[in-house]
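Hi, here's the filled form for the chain we discussed.

Project: internal
Contact: R.S.
Residues: 804
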Amino acid sequence: MLKNWLRIAFVNYKRNWLSTIINLFGLTVGLTGFMLILMHWNDEESYERWNPKKNLIYGAQVYNKKDNAYGATIPYIMAERAVKVIPEIKDYVLFNGSGVGYKMTTKKKTVFQKDGMLVSGNFFNFFPFKLIDGSFKDALKAESSLAISTGAAKNLFGKTDVAGESVKFDNKNYVITAVYELPEENSLIKPEFVILPFEQMKNDKDQWGNFNYGCFFMLSKNANVEEVQNKIVKDLFEYRAKINAAGSGVTPQKYLELYGPTGSILTPLDKMKLHAEAYWFGNGDFKTLMILFTLSVLIVILSAINFINLKTAQASQRAKEIGVRKAIGSTKYNLILQFLLETFLICFASYLLSLALTELLLPSFNKFYDKEIMMNDWHIYFYSFVMVLAVTLISGLIPAIYLANFKAIETLKGNFARSKHGIWLRNGILTLQLIISSFFIIGGLIVNNQVKYMMNKDLGYNGKQILLINFSENDAKPWLKYERIKNEMKKIQGVDAVSYGEAVPGSYRFSNSNMDYMDKSIYAQHGSMDYNYLQFMDVKLKKGRWLNPNLASDTMTNVLVNEAFVKKFGWTDDQAIKNEFRPGFDNKPYHIVGIVKDFNLLNPRKAVEPIVFFHYRETEWKRYNVYNIQLKLKADDIGGTLKRIKTYWQNNVEPGYPFDYFFIDKKFAQSFEKYQKQQTLFTILNAMVLMVALLGLFALSSLMIEQKLKDVAIRKTLGAADSTLIFGLTKQFLWITFIAVLISIPISYYLMNEWLKDFAYRIDMPVFPFVLSLTLLLILTFAVVSIKAYQATKVNLVKYLKYE
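And the returned structure, exactly as it came back:
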């Protein structure tokens, strides 16, 4: 019986070779997209899974109800208290810096070692890397302790058994206590060396307001995470409010409302990258990932719809076969199994082809996402095969039941395919396919418009030809280093101006704190800078004046703020110029002397946040955070100027360190990469969807028009013109397309409006994509169907009339 079923299947594949190819092509394309996105998702979910303690380690995040904002940092003293007063919290590890580098000196050589981390002493209790030499016990106990990876050991010593060796950097002598091997698996925590931020932690030990540390807590095995989160709020946040509110004139509850945090979130270590609200090491984009996965599933569904449509349209060719088989005793159950087998063979062939195509496309996909994904995970094969089975059931069961329900007597009498049931089924499924196609066209155009809008938006500053050089060497007094070299660098040929600013577009290296005025408080970013920095960046002054180097008060209490700062306090510009506020980072009032137009620091997706700009000498601790120098280059010889700057820097400023620089406009442009990738992927998916949909439409129209060739021959004999016949054959498909687009418009509007809500600066919902979708699909439908309709008008009249 099975052999007979297979023979019948291949006979039908051959007879309907066009629809067979279209089904194979559509399912292969759909499954390939599904597998690539599935591998991308699986790769994103795999971070930190190597860690044997991952089920006990939770990332700490805070929530501020007033600003509806999440944070990834807590004070050092808060972590200390958590272990003491919350029984379920057994340990903690803090991060104070990542990606740091030093020029390290051994007995034999001096090299620059990058990618280090500043962590607290219990680091290896949380991240038990494979130990190669030394010991993890007390590895980071002393101020002079240094643990390094095998890569760093080879870089410094040329070997890995170096525990006990000495290394000098940052004007200190360190002793290597442990050498470890980093995991090959995905991890955001892969330090080439780790040291204690001893001085920083010493200074922060009693500071409840210094939210400087990323933190992981280790919980007891059976801890109730929700209860621990509540205890953190009560025993840490509310306790902090009581301490800081004492003597301030406000109640602890009011203090908590003003300054927060008001909520606590604990996320498992292996869920942090994709699912954390805020993460020290940077979040993934779970929402975009889910959109891509959903779209890939939609393409598979489109392919399944093609299959259903084509199978039901071919009913006339199978009707007599089914009638004969039923007449000789075949059951409905046997017929359904036979048709499911035929469907499975096509789906399985598509699965094998999609595996080959995925392997072929994977290098380009990895390059696009900067990944190293390999097809070595059994989950990919399992889930994609489950999808094949699902497609087999979805696309095979409907036509199988439809065909198996043919009555033997009716099918042996004539063509059942023209019944209203068959027509309504095909038209309904075709409408669903065109609804999905219309959504992709509308969505693709809106995504494209939004990305273009962001890229062309006036950012409020001019970053062209501005070169930023990061200080690599850790000077004891970095502001003096800046002041020492800025006049020398002005003399370099091709340098037009020099300045320094903390709040740099495209960079996340800035901090924020509360700003208080009477009974109101807001959070604002710090913008410590040189006097000329805002003019240097071509930021526009809205009211007041710039900072003046000739006025002593401009390095003591005078500041500038942006429009968002004024708006957040609810002031007018005139009120702002008259007012003073107290920043959380200082104990004196600051006076506003100027208001600048808002300019975008991160990306146009987010609203401009309040910023206060002040000279780096105005607040004592800020001068220690001077970390860059910025140069505006003349346009005539940028390449030559860059070479001269690099030579001067490596010979006179930081010999032995890498020349760490970027152009501000290019750095900011990186913030668009995610949206440009979304735009590219939407364009590719659009092309795939249209291709699958139009091929399916062509095959379906071909089969349906072939069923009407006798009608065409009769009408042509009676004198009907070719144009009339073509329009008559295509009219039904045009109506289906028109109805499908009308249905898709409110669906597309809602979904794309939800997507646009993520952008603070967004386009108004345009009408053009909806009109274009309707026009384009009508034109494409007419073009595709009319090709077959035109061929139908050239039929051999004798061939189709001789049986009448």
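Let me know if anything looks off before we file it.
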